[in-house]
Specification:
This protein folds into 2 domains: 184 residues, no CATH class; 100 residues, no CATH class. The radius of gyration is 19 Å and the shape is globular. With 306 residues, the protein is α+β, with helices and mostly antiparallel strands. Strands 3-8-4-5-6-7 form a 6-stranded antiparallel β-sheet, sandwiched between helices.
Length: 306
């Protein structure tokens, strides 16, 4: 893949971490890959399709990305009082990460106004009285939200996975210097682990059956408004970065997956469900191929000098 996609995409955690890390971070694309989100396909909750491994969760993604990139932070959860106290300590120089919060309940997000199961994070840079000031990487810098309104989004009970209520990360610090290439090589092991999760081929077939049948409103909405663009972007970035690294085997399969996932948007929007189902079935075997390609790429890496 010789062209790099630039533009909007729902890189919530990776973009938020990049704000927090500043120039010392490896950048959103590397963090997204280090978090493991591109590697797999799963069905969660009410038959909602995700372009991530059945073993992947957002919390794992943040933790793994930070670990591989050489960063640590403090984290608390469970107490709204303690969480707000941490928010009140946030400054432009020492921001904090609040989340997961329910995007559908954030009052500044247009067109929602109800819980939709969309986990999200915001970078809090201060509290002015009872108003939180934050950077929301979906597209709202310096956005404001009332403390009480934010707490209602922060209960962790609307997602397809278990999440801690009132989780907040703070005191971010770099504990090791790790270059981008080292992060990407370490992420190969994450990819192998996530692609080894059972149920990925079955999820591809189930996704095909869902689009051939009668997709429910939320199943369809989540695909065309989030998952397809997120999945294609993650795969495109992974293909580009691993090709630059010289890992051409994984890069070629990731590029093929990116093309397949990217093609779903038009077919879903124009109700070409037979073609969309065929795309999911074409994706099914590629995940085992990608796992094997990463195993071979790991084996080909030079060992430590002796």
């Amino acid at each position: 893949m010789t062209l790099t996609y630039l533009g909007n995409s729902p890189y919530c955690a990776a973009n938020s971490l990049s704000i927090l890390f500043g120039d010392e971070g490896p950048g959103p694309a590397v963090l997204e890959i280090a978090g493991g989100s591109p590697f797999g396909l799963a069905i969660h909750g009410d038959d909602i399709i995700y372009f991530s491994s059945p073993a992947w969760r957002p919390e794992f993604g943040i933790n793994n990305a930070m670990e591989l990139a050489g960063w640590e932070c403090d984290r608390i959860h469970g107490s709204p009082t303690d969480a707000v106290a941490v928010l009140r300590q946030a400054t432009w120089d020492k921001p904090v990460l609040a989340g997961p919060v329910e995007m559908g309940l954030l009052p500044y997000v247009p067109g929602l106004g109800q819980a939709v199961g969309a986990d999200h994070n915001i970078v809090v840079i201060g509290v002015e009285g009872d108003t939180v000031r934050a950077h929301d990487v979906i597209g709202w810098p310096f956005v404001t939200v009332g403390v009480d309104a934010l707490l209602k989004t922060w209960e962790g009970n609307t997602f397809a996975y278990e999440a801690d209520a009132y989780a907040v990360r703070f005191n971010f610090r770099r504990v090791r210097e790790v270059d981008r290439e080292t992060v990407l090589r370490a992420a190969m092991h994450t990819a192998v682990d996530l692609l080894s999760a059972p149920g990925i081929p079955e999820a591809a077939e189930r996704a095909a059956q869902l689009v051939e049948g009668d997709l429910k409103s939320m199943q369809y909405k989540y695909l065309v408004e989030f998952q397809v663009q997120a999945g294609a972007r993650r795969l495109a970035d992974a293909a580009m970065l691993y090709r630059r690294l010289g890992s051409h085997g994984p890069a070629e399969i990731l590029e093929r997956q990116a093309l397949l996932v990217g093609s779903l948007q038009l077919d879903l929007m124009t109700q070409e469900y037979g073609r969309a189902a065929a795309t999911f079935r074409a994706l099914g075997p590629t995940y085992a191929e990608l796992r094997q390609a990463f195993v071979e790429a790991i084996d080909d890496q030079p060992g430590p000098a002796t």
